[in-house]
Amino acid sequence: MSELNPEQYREQLLELKAALEEIEETSQQAGDTVQLDQQSVGRLSRIDALQAQQMAQASEQRRQETLTRIQGALRRIDAGTFGECFVCGEIIDERRLSVDPTNTRCLACAEAED
For 6, 36, 60, 88, which has the most beta carbons within 10 A of its beta carbon? Predict the structure, then answer.
């Protein structure tokens, strides 16, 4: 981690984590079970409600995956291995980390994976 400043990334990761946790708190009710009462809601409204529920659940899953990646990046900072490619061990370009500090692969290894 020669030229990387892990503390700068720690701050960025903690801010992102806090923002995701805040969103999670405010959006929990959107993923709740949809009531399918035929009398109170029309067919299209029920379809809209089910679609909204599925979208909320997908968003929640993406948030959880991102939080997991953030926790991993914070552990790598603590361990002193932040910025090292999981595959080849080379330093990940700082420009790549500035876009997504949870990246675990350098550009060459990420492209080889695809």
Answer: 6
The answer to whether the Cα torsion of 93, 94, 98, 103 is positive or negative is positive
Integer Cα distance of 78 and 87 in angstroms: 20
Residue length, the chain?
114
Q: Which helix (H) or strand (E) segment is 16 a member of?
A: helix 6-27
Q: Exposure pattern of 9-19 as b/e (b: 16+ CB <10 Å)? A: bbeebeebbee
In angstroms, rounded to a whole number, what is the distance separating the alpha carbons of residues 113 and 93?
Answer: 17
For residue range 53-93, what is the model confidence (pLDDT) as tens digits?
889 889 999 999 999 999 999 999 999 999 999 999 999 99
- For residue 84, the SS3 value is strand
* CA–centroid distance for 53 within its chain: 19
Fill in the amino acid letter for 84: E
Given CA atoms 45, 51, 53, 55 in this order, what sign does their dihedral have?
Answer: negative
